[in-house]
């Protein structure tokens, strides 16, 4: 899961990045609305955490533009202002949840989890495809109740493919998803993880197809 964090308070941004990284999310930070805009054009994100008090523009204005372009990404807003009005305005402009500063990092983490579940995983922590069940809470892959051991990166690749099952996921997107400390994976490394993952999951009625020039697609290979 790739999170775009738009926050100009460096200390808070560092804390959030650290907390979210520790629970398995990739975080890309932007300290201005304009830079966030550029990142949004260049990369794929799954969720946005948006501070309303940005140095170059009002976060609400940024959000309004995002929604006017029909970008449906879940957005959690952070507001330093205590006013109920800001929260109401935020929700009206299309925010999915909000937190008022100051807040506990752990609470934000829980809200991010919940939002992702709500938007991508139904009401469960599990993503199911055929005989595969990915337990996104415990970061485990289960087949018929048995755990299949995956490395953290294999898990990351499988999660993104499963969330988009039946759709093509680009190699770049996978590389970004597995970014550690700002270093995206090389194409070769992505191929290696895909290769390993195939060996793990293909015996269980699931297939990772290579769509030449575009990326990879996960689908069922059985007729169940
Ligand atoms: Ca701010």
**Distance between termini?**
29 Å
Residues in β-strands, percent: 15-25%
- Walk across the major sheet and give the strand order: 2-1-3-4-5
| Structural class by SSE content | alpha/beta
Mean model confidence by pLDDT:
89
Report Rg: 18 Å
Unique bound compounds: calcium ion
Number of strands: 12
What spatial form do the alpha-carbon principal axes imply? elongated
Summarize the helices and strands and which ones pair or pack.
Blueprint: E1 2-6, H1 10-22, E2 26-30, H2 33-42, E3 47-51, H3 59-68, E4 75-79, H4 84-92, E5 97-100, H5 105-120, E6 126-129, E7 132-135, E8 140-143, E9 146-148, H6 152-163, E10 168-169, H7 171-177, H8 187-201, E11 206-211, E12 215-220
Parallel strand pairs: 1-2, 1-3, 3-4, 4-5
Antiparallel strand pairs: 6-7, 7-8, 8-9, 10-12, 11-12
Helix pairs in contact: 1-5, 6-8
The structure holds calcium ion.
Short overview:
By secondary structure, the chain is α/β, with parallel strands linked by helices. Helices cover 41% and strands 24% of the residues.
Walk me through the structure.
With 224 residues, this protein is α/β, with parallel strands linked by helices. The chain is built from 8 helices and 12 strands. The chain has helices at 10-22, 33-42, 59-68, 84-92, 105-120, 152-163, 171-177, 187-201, and strands spanning 2-6, 26-30, 47-51, 75-79, 97-100, 126-129, 132-135, 140-143, 146-148, 168-169, 206-211, 215-220. The strands form 3 sheets. It has a 5-stranded parallel β-sheet, sandwiched between helices. The longest helix has 16 residues, at 105-120. The structure holds calcium ion (CA). Calcium ion binds at residues 8-9, 51, 53-54.
